[in-house]
Amino acid sequence: IKRVTTHTLQEMKARGEKISMLTAYDYSMAGILDAAGIDIILVGDSASNVMAGHETTLPITLDQMIYHASSVVRAVKRAFVVVDIPFGSYQGNSSEALRSTIRIMKESGAHAVKVEGGAEIKESVTRILSAGVPVMGHLGLTPQSIYKFGTYTVRAKEEKEAEKLLSDAKVLEECGCFAIVLEKIPAKLAQKVSETVAIPVIGIGAGAYVDGQVLVVHDMLGITQEFQPRFLRQYADLRGTMLNAVENYIQDVKSKDFPNEKESY
Ligand code: KIV
Ligand code: NA
């Protein structure tokens, strides 16, 4: 199998083939996504919510992200694996950003890192890139800054914020980022960004006129069901399927139906 690289992704944008991306945080799930043919697996800091049950992405640590990332990498044969640098592991200064990146790359075997922000983190992005590590940007709704904004509503609806976002996207492209995630912004603005920069733009709640789409895998599989934003398309009801299976198991244990003769030694 031919591995997906930053070069593959750039070619996909050039010929108009949309890029598919989903999150994964463990070996079993990553193996399924890779077997299905996903282009990019994001070891997102959404693991803080989905795997650990925290309200925000802020508490997850670098060590925890490395544990998730190394589990994912062991399962993957084809997909390009990107890891979120968690809150507090890159904002301090560019040396801290590089140190965190090197730990992620060495200890997990992942292929790239993702950071939230634009011009503010330009130095860190440049420093990571100069060490030879591909960087994915993330603009719009940036969950690590949730307390600065106060809500998870649509971002960059106003002219000033839209201009800043477009200019940040250009900064990230100039720095040498290989792609940018745009989260929860108007489709028109996302289209403009995608047409302005030459690197792939991957949307989540950013409409159809971008170069690829990303979703949190537990949300699109219907494992988590309390989170229902309008941008989410649910492709399965795994919570329902799993609840049903576990209820049947409990019933079979209680009724002594399980195990039967064939299931015994
Ligand atoms: O952590 C995450 O899952 C993400 C995606 C939503 C882009 O950053
Ligand atoms: Na994230």
UniProtKB/TrEMBL annotation:
Binding site residues for Mg(2+): D45, D84, E116
Entry keywords, A to Z: Cytoplasm, Magnesium, Metal-binding, Pantothenate biosynthesis, Transferase
Broad enzyme group: transferase
Places the protein is found: Cytoplasm
Active site positions: E183 (proton acceptor)
NCBIfam families: panB (TIGR00222), PRK00311.1 (NF001452)
Protein name: 3-methyl-2-oxobutanoate hydroxymethyltransferase
Organism from which the protein derives: Echinicola jeungdonensis
Organism ancestry: Bacteria, Pseudomonadati, Bacteroidota, Cytophagia, Cytophagales
